[in-house]
Specification:
heterodimer, A: 233 residues, alpha+beta, Immunoglobulin-like, five-stranded mixed beta sheet, 10 strands, B: 526 residues
Chain lengths: 233, 526
């Protein structure tokens, strides 16, 4: 066996040093930004593992082509101890990486699921094939009008379904959650900047599943107050 | 004709499974083309939304239940396993015949989808309450197809477990059986435990829809989440029913074509295969990360799902390092097998973000998920099946396939699948939801969709070239030069004719204590 084969393991260990833990995003846990950090760590992580395996496979496939018709392979035969080492060492490295990713994922998850105390609540109702929104002050909206929210205030959506399973997805905020008949589920996000973002349904719900979409409209506090006054039912 | 219909010979049963599964593959593949063409432009173009949904349902159900599971367990186990362990047939040949015909009737029943009014449009997952209360689709076709194919699988499971346990050649110990045989054992243990759960789940759907029960009706005390749990309790392990035989066959092909023993056989079997079987049953909730379950289940299953990378990683290490210091000979089968080393990387590594509940909150139900499982099921498992058909083609037919045409088909397929699914990965990360008939809200994704359609056309051409090669070569290909053209050391090559006659072995084989199916090195040559 060549000595260089053992270099794979140190490289894999160094890999975890590349992917540093997520920096705390200040007091306010904006999970959308945190998602990007975890996502990039993950891309590095799988990129490095993929490159290591990919390069080794390519080198082997090119280097060990048969040179003569009667050639046979010279692959290693292991004693029990070597066998176990080649099992346990990679297993421990993979497991270390798994726990490292699990820890990052867990932290992000807690931030994604912990609603800030000052969040504005919006009741979301999904049905085949439209959305309705109801605000704390009695204003209402739907998917044509859009989910209008004031900039800078975290928004929590309390969601229920009138009929089948739907799922409320805002790609730009990196979140979705299903609307389960018979349950109330929730999502929260931080509308940090004025702008418009697509929301859409991501659980198959029949003919017009792909037409259950609209815009999250983030407006200034003042505009929002005007809008919500005008849309009181 | 008669000798095929009434056959109890495991080789013919295997071929019948292959024909059935390739037929399912062809129909489901044509539907995939229709789906791809529809998505090529924003807005409704070719077909109606309801037709599109029926096509999506059928594509998924037929590919998984009609092609992958029967192709990789039914065909491969039937054709190869008895010969690999030196048995003259399976333990219960008539049960075997029953199981292939149950499967064929399942396929016929599924095809009636296109004939009956109100075909099912419930996706292969059949989530309640859409499937039970809101869809006008005929649910019973889905349920009874699952029942028939499920029974067929269970009979196969009992049959093959008995065959391996009781019918190994005299002298063949557990550490001397082919790696492929281990993966089939693992796959059938999974089937035996979990198929009844799926059968239960879909039966409850049937009762809800037609007999007025309310297992999944929240307003009457039922629970929608219950169905999702029951369904994925089977359907995630089902991924390993497909994956395990696929890597098993790849291991055999790579070992034979590089004339090397399998790298670290013991760890690959006891850690890899059985690790997957054990862990694979505790990860199903990652399909339900966004379904409003309690948080501790989502976190717990995130950890188990991530850890499944350990046994899969061990198997991958064995696959790659079996090439080390090999004497690799490239034919079409080996082309497919080598490409699988790359597919398992892409497919496996893109599974890692989907194991993390927090990343799935964004990636779940998008094209990213869709591209990920197509890399595993639609490419890795499918290419492994194609590799196997090419590799064992001289054994099955006694003839050689056309190498040039085979390689041309491979390149069409390989370039095609990459061209199809890379753009879909990217727009998936950007938020393109799956199961969409139209994508009015994301017109910027049209270019990627068009690239994917071009890729799909290449794949269709590649598959056509491959099928023509198989059929033409089976009928009038060049005769195989001998019984063992790849110079394998495994029993199905060394001790049988090509194609093998009834009873497989002219003399019942016996093996010595130091024999393995991978004896290539001179010092252990027999």
């Amino acid at each position: 066996m060549n000595r260089w084969m053992f270099f794979i393991f140190p490289v894999a260990v160094v890999m975890s040093a590349f992917t540093l833990p997520a920096e705390a995003a200040g007091d306010f846990q904006d999970h959308t930004q945190e998602f990007e950090v975890v996502w990039h760590h993950l891309l590095w992580d799988i990129g490095i593992i993929g490159t290591i395996f990919g390069v080794i496979s390519a080198v082997f496939l090119i280097k060990y082509r048969r040179k003569s018709p009667n050639q046979v392979g010279g692959g290693p035969r292991f004693t029990m101890a070597q066998s176990l080492a080649w099992g346990l060492i990679p297993a421990l490295i993979f497991m270390a990486d798994d726990f490292y990713l699990a820890a990052q994922g867990w932290k992000l998850w807690i931030d994604q699921r912990s609603v800030p105390e000052n969040a504005m609540e919006v009741q979301v109702t999904g049905q085949m094939w439209s959305w309705n929104f109801e605000y704390e002050n009695g204003a209402t909206s739907d998917n044509d009008e859009g989910l209008v929210v004031p900039v800078g205030t975290p928004v929590v959506l309390r969601m229920k379904s009138e009929d089948v399973i739907h799922s409320f997805f805002i790609p730009d905020f990196r979140i979705k959650e299903d609307l389960m008949p018979g349950r109330v589920t929730y999502l929260w996000f931080n509308p940090a900047k004025i702008g418009e973002h697509v929301f859409t349904c991501t659980e198959f719900c029949g003919t017009d599943h792909s037409h259950m979409f609209g815009k999250v409209k983030i407006v200034s506090k003042q505009q929002f107050d005007q809008w919500s006054e005008a849309h009181k039912s | 004709m008669k000798e095929w219909i009434f056959t109890t010979d495991h080789k013919r049963v295997g071929i019948l499974y292959l024909i059935g599964s390739m037929a399912a593959f062809a129909v489901a593949g044509l539907l995939a083309m229709a789906i791809r063409f529809e998505l090529t432009w924003v807005g409704p173009t070719l077909i109606e939304a309801d037709t599109y949904n029926v096509f999506l349902y059928f594509h998924g159900a037929a590919m998984i239940l009609g092609f992958l599971i029967p192709g990789l367990t039914g065909f491969m186990a039937n054709y190869l396993l008895p010969m690999m362990i030196g048995a003259h047939d399976v333990a219960f040949p008539r049960l075997n015949a029953l199981s292939v015909w149950l499967y064929w009737f399942g396929i016929v029943l599924a095809l009636l989808t296109f004939v009956v009014p109100d075909p099912p449009d419930i996706m292969w997952t059949g989530y309640a309450p859409y499937s039970t209360q809101y869809s006008s689709g005929n649910l019973s076709f889905y349920v009874f197809t699952v029942h028939l194919i499920g029974f067929s699988s269970l009979l196969g499971a009992v049959n093959f477990l008995c065959t391996v346990i009781y019918m190994r050649a005299p002298g063949m110990g557990w550490n001397q059986i082919n790696f492929f045989v281990w993966t089939i054992l693992g796959a059938f243990v999974i089937q035996l435990i979990f198929v009844p759960v799926l059968a239960t789940a879909v039966t409850l759907l049937l009762l809800d829809k037609y007999l007025g029960t309310s297992f999944f009706v929240p307003s009457a005390g039922g629970d929608v989440l219950l169905y999702e749990n029951l369904f994925w309790f089977y359907s995630h392990p089902a991924v390993y029913v497909i994956l395990l035989p696929a890597v098993g066959a790849l291991m055999e092909i790579i070992s034979t074509m590089s004339k090397n023993p399998i790298f670290n056989y013991r760890v690959a079997v006891y850690g890899g295969v059985w690790g997957v079987v054990l862990l694979g049953s505790d990860v199903w909730a990652h399909h339900l990360y966004t379904s409003g379950m309690v948080d501790w289940v989502r976190i717990g299953m995130m950890v188990t799902t991530l850890i499944i990378s350990v046994p899969v990683g061990l198997i991958t290490i064995s696959l790659v390092f079996t090439l080390y210091k090999g004497a690799i000979r490239f034919n079409t089968g080996m082309y497919y097998a080598a490409s699988c080393l790359y597919l398992i990387l892409i497919g496996g590594l893109t599974g890692i973000p989907l194991a993390m509940s927090s990343l799935t909150l964004h990636l779940g139900e998008t094209y990213f998920v869709m591209a990920h499982f197509h890399f595993i099921m639609g490419m890795l498992a499918t290419f492994a099946l194609f590799a196997s058909v090419y590799h064992w083609f001289p054994k099955m037919t006694g003839r050689m396939y056309n190498e040039k045409v085979g390689k041309a088909g491979f390149w069409l397929n390989f370039i095609g699948v990459n061209l199809t699914f890379y753009p879909l990965f990217i727009i998936g990360v950007e938020g393109m939801p799956r199961r969409y008939f139209d994508y009015e809200m994301f017109p910027q994704f049209q270019g990627s969709q068009q690239l994917a359609t071009v890729g799909a056309i290449l794949v269709a051409a590649g598959i056509a070239v491959m099928l023509i090669n198989w059929i033409y070569s089976a009928i009038s290909g060049e005769k195989a030069p001998n019984n063992n053209p790849w110079e394998s050391a495994s029993l199905e090559w060394t001790a049988t004719a090509s194609p093998p006659g009834p009873g497989n072995f002219p003399q019942p084989p016996e093996v010595s204590a130091d024999w393995t199916p991978y004896d290539y090195q001179p010092r252990t040559a027999s």
